[in-house]
Design a protein that fits this description.
The protein is mainly α. The chain contains four helices and no strands. The longest helix has about 30 residues.
């Protein structure tokens, strides 16, 4: 049982690093694209990857909680809330992109600033919980 828990911790940590990597890749794609149509097409292919990485964190967290007999500590509850917040932020960002008025002047530039704020918040949340847990 302890071996499974130790393996889950390692996998969980790598999943957190993968989430940070995906966020930075999202930022790179956002800043490098000049055309809204290309960006929308790229995001339609990349968004499932973002969801998969977030689900990987949730899955490894659930496995660790099951190994510890569903022990709900303050850290576990905060991590669950963080996962829900990450999913909500990604949902807000993708909905805003989906309903973006493409004919509107500066629509993509306005979306870029909005998305960068969301990405910055996601980075802050992931790093703050990670630093707290890795210490």
């Amino acid at each position: 049982m302890n071996e499974m828990y130790d393996m889950s911790i390692v996998t969980h940590n790598y999943s957190v690093i993968a989430v940070l990597g995906v966020i930075f890749i999202n930022i790179f794609i956002l800043l490098s694209m000049k055309n809204l149509t290309k960006y929308t097409r790229t995001m339609s292919l990349f968004t499932p990857i973002v969801g998969t990485v977030i689900v990987a964190i949730i899955f490894t967290g659930v496995v660790m909680m099951a190994a510890k007999h569903l022990d709900f500590t303050a850290e576990n509850i905060i991590m669950i809330l963080l996962a829900v917040i990450l999913i909500y932020l990604e949902f807000k960002r993708s909905i805003k992109l989906k309903y973006l008025k493409k004919k509107e002047n500066n629509a993509f530039e306005n979306y870029k600033s909005y998305a960068l704020k969301i990405f910055s918040l996601e980075i802050f949340l992931v790093l703050s919980i990670s630093v707290w847990m890795w210490n």
